[in-house]
Recover the amino acids of this structure.
């Protein structure tokens, strides 16, 4: 079975639609989203509606968690809180109910799907964990392969019971070793933070035990202009162009007038 694993759409409908077009051409059997469908981006409602319409399973991310749990917002940066407050203005009551019913994790054909750190954390960043902590995550759980998002960066962690191996997944395909267990960080559709502004996602072929890394170009200016038009931070628009490091860009006249 071929499963497309997407994550961190962050209200970026343009990037999501382009990824779904790419997935449609890739002969995929199923799609799953690993959370953070909302936050930072200008079309959170439209993204959630499309995920529901296409019956794409979703998971609770830290931004969804902050929507339903005010206490968790204290862990957000001031900029992220501003984005969250703006996001809430565009969510319907139906979408808020949808978010409240999201699970912390899913299991699909033997794979564990989670937003942050296995087995079920929406908030722990894998790239902030020490080597002993990562080893303990493998040792204390029974998954053979787990998929996560949250960091907005591609990364493969392999563990053979003794040693850890790391791969930044810069190549297009990778064959997984049968003697290793894996955590795959699938990057971000809507807001990459790896220096490459293209949308990222992964395809897992369970029969071939292989990964395909997909990088999809989309109209960044359209999303960036809409971010400004809908009252989100300029910072949220700038960072789309570099895949992390904000750069200035020229707004369309319409967007500038709506600022």
């Amino acid at each position: 079975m071929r499963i497309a694993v997407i994550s961190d759409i962050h209200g970026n409908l343009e990037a999501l639609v382009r990824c779904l077009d790419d997935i449609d051409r890739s002969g995929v059997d199923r799609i799953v989203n690993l959370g953070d469908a909302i936050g930072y981006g200008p079309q959170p409602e439209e993204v959630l509606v499309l995920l529901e319409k296409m019956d794409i399973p979703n998971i609770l991310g830290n931004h969804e968690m902050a929507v339903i749990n005010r206490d968790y917002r204290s862990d957000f940066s001031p900029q992220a809180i501003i984005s969250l407050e703006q996001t809430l203005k565009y969510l319907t009551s139906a979408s808020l109910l949808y978010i409240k019913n999201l699970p912390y994790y899913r299991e699909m054909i033997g794979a564990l799907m989670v937003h942050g750190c296995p087995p079920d954390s929406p908030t722990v960043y894998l790239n902030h964990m020490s080597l002993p902590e990562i080893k303990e995550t493998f040792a204390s759980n029974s998954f053979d392969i787990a998929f996560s998002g949250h960091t907005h960066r591609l990364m493969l962690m392999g563990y053979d019971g003794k040693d850890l191996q790391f791969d930044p997944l810069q190549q297009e395909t990778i064959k997984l070793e049968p003697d290793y267990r894996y955590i795959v960080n699938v990057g971000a559709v809507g807001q990459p933070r790896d220096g490459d502004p293209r949308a990222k996602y992964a395809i897992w072929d369970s029969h071939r035990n292989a990964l395909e890394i997909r990088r999809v170009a989309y109209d960044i200016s359209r999303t960036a202009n809409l971010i400004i038009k809908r009252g989100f931070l300029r910072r949220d628009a700038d960072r789309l162009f570099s895949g992390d490091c904000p750069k200035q860009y020229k707004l369309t006249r319409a967007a500038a007038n709506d600022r």
